[in-house]
Amino acid sequence: YAFGYWGKGTLVTVSSATPKSPSVFPLMECGSVTRNMVTLGCLATDFTPSSLTYSWSKSGAALTDFIQYPPTMTGNYYTGISQISVNRNDWDNGDDFKCVAAHSTGNVEATLTKPIVDCQLPTVSLSVSSADEQETVFACLAKDFSPKNYEVKWFRNGKEVTSKISNTPVKEESKTPNGTLYSAASFLTVSSSD
Length: 194
Fold this sequence. Notes:
Blueprint: E1 2-5, E2 11-14, E3 23-28, E4 37-47, E5 52-58, E6 61-63, E7 66-68, E8 72-74, E9 77-87, H1 88-92, E10 97-103, E11 106-112, E12 123-128, E13 135-145, E14 154-156, E15 159-161, E16 165-167, E17 171-176, E18 179-191
């Protein structure tokens, strides 16, 4: 490789490397976001030469308000990234966003659509330890639920109990065609004086 600069913004690269097309990966925000916009990204890796141009579209209509960062070299290949902010309502409604990375070896594209989270209510069982003279332990097992987020609340005579509670970490129970199912447990210890 050899390169030189002539004037402001002019880069000339001379290379004997065989051109290689990029692999393109879609990037999207995770978790719940409360803003009106969602940031999406398009990552192109392992390509040469460095010249790469991105374009974005929503359901076939061209989008122009995106950022394209200059490619960086890692080893003998380049990595590039582009990002765009899209309207949360469009994202939540399941609109398709397409990123195209145009390279001398051809165009490579990735489609980004909000993933559908399969929601499944847990099977809940409650058990009580054999009472001794000092305390009783209540166990609540929530099994086969999705998504992973959960909350167990304990109540006694209509009032929430917040002390002497221990929770197990969420455990991945099984994978299904619609996603992953989880299990968790919560334990409440009640003393005989309560």
